[in-house]
Prior knowledge:
The chain is of the alpha+beta class. Helices cover 36% and strands 17% of the residues. The strands form 5 sheets. The chain has a 4-stranded antiparallel β-sheet with strand order 1-4-5-6, with no helix packed on it. A 3-stranded antiparallel β-sheet has the order 7-12-13, with no helix packed on it. Residues 1-12, 36-40 and 233-241 have low confidence and may be disordered.
Amino acid sequence: MGQCVWKGCMLLDMATVMKRFVTLFVLAVFLTISAAPQSRRPPLSKDEVHDMLSSHQPSSEIAATIQKYGINFPPTDAVLEEFRASGADQSVLAALQRAWHPEIPKPLSATQIRMLVTAETPNENIVRLMAERGIDFQPTAAFLNEIRSDGAQDALIDALQRASPRPFSKQELMQLLGTSLDENGLAQQVRERGIDFDPVAANLQALRNAGAHTPLLEAVRTARREKPFAARAPAVAAVPPVVAEGKSVNLVCGPGDSDVPVFAVPDNLGNIATNLHCGEQVVFLGNVPAPPGVDKIRYGDGKVGYIADAYIGSTLAGIGADIKPPTAIYKPDPDYTPQAARKGIEGTIQFSVVVDTAGNIADIQEKSAPLGDGLDQSAIDTVKKWKFNPATRNGVPVPVRVTVEVSFRMSKGPK
Length: 415
């Protein structure tokens, strides 16, 4: 059996498992609530826009209402044609197009990261969440020491040491201006996090139209400029090592475990369906979105349940004395993007990849800080095409996770 998905193979007694599930559930709710701004008034629905059109209000008033509250539906060509048929003129149609903004997830706070660590969420999951959402604070040495004592591992500490607060985009600020957030507090956050857009008169006017007042406008005008945050997400599994969905695995228990609790639903501790024997074979059906660290399985005569992913064994081999590592047989170089070439951006991107038994890349996760301007995606797209002679154990191909690098150098091209 390979490694466990959670810390080592340290597994818990029933009371600790139940406590962990409670913490994970509370954390999942906290993250979900914090991810979306709380509006004073919900955005307009399609029916509400139709009602305004049928009431024969002046188009200028309808457009102003749409601009003030936003809309909760995408203004596709078909939707715009529907409103045009209902009497919308060009000013209303233009307001609809400007009013639709996909939700921008909030960056992680220091408190949220500590909660994730305390809940014993796999550190790889926390790093992944940071890559997708960014953070809103500058990690200090004291903070890093605190979360290390809470159980943070080197991969998370390294990611936090490389991280910096996610700068505000103009769109994010405009969305936040439609919430109950204190504007003075938002101005202070702007001074701490910076912005990723040019505070020219047109952008300041757009913020003023969205409700910004002098303190926030002055903070934006004097804020430091940062590169735009680029959200990144691994192509496949969130937590290495990878267990393929639909694959049979044996439940792994630690010395203190007599059995494995199976829950009927992932977030209800009062609904234990059964207890399975350590070592019993189940079918892994995948991770659930929330709470983190929970897997869906099929067991017995086709029953479905949920368990802590500490009990799932890994099918990945580790590079060791008995493993012959994979060797690359096809490694095309990625291309410089035009914008990166114009700016002369150089650097090295490090990836953690799974090479499967056919020698293909089965999973790719970026480990290093992003270079930006399209270079990261260019490298990812190219590494996915690489081919290897697979790793072997006693001559038999086995999947392994290894680290690879791609370097961009203006003088020599990418490597």
